[in-house]
């Protein structure tokens, strides 16, 4: 396994989460009124989630773990194989559905949900990175 592949994606994850973190103190009203901020936040959340998926898929491939039958199960397989904790795997497996909304169902993005994520949910990305680093 080429650790540099994972490190590069972890750096990108950190950068994207940092951009989102810049808006974590915004009120819901301020967030909803600023479409430029929404664009920045949504894109960087999408990229953050994709980084996690890519890291997970790379580890699964290189470690020859069970191939997930659905992209959503990438995190479940990581949990089953102690790459990340089962607790974290259960928390983050919903990220893929959210990423799909950001990419494909962009007309239905719930700004209240996004605001909740940026004010409360960014810790999951940090925990994912820490657990992957611990696994390596």
What is this entry, summarized?
With 136 residues, the protein is mainly α. The chain contains 8 helices and no strands.
How would you describe this protein?
The protein has 136 residues and is mostly helical. The protein has a single domain (3-135), classed as Up-down Bundle (Four Helix Bundle (Hemerythrin (Met), subunit A)), CATH 1.20.120.580. The protein contains 8 helices and no strands. The chain has helices spanning 3-21, 28-33, 35-62, 74-80, 86-92, 95-104, 111-121, 123-135. Helix 3 (35-62) packs across helix 6 (95-104). The protein is elongated and about 45 Å long. The relative contact order is 0.17.
Class inferred from helices and paired strands: mainly alpha
Main sheet properties: none
- Radius of gyration, CA atoms, in whole angstroms: 15 Å
* Residue share in helix: over 70%
Q: What is the string of helix and strand elements? A: HHHHHHHH
At the third CATH level, what is the topology name? Answer: Four Helix Bundle (Hemerythrin (Met), subunit A)
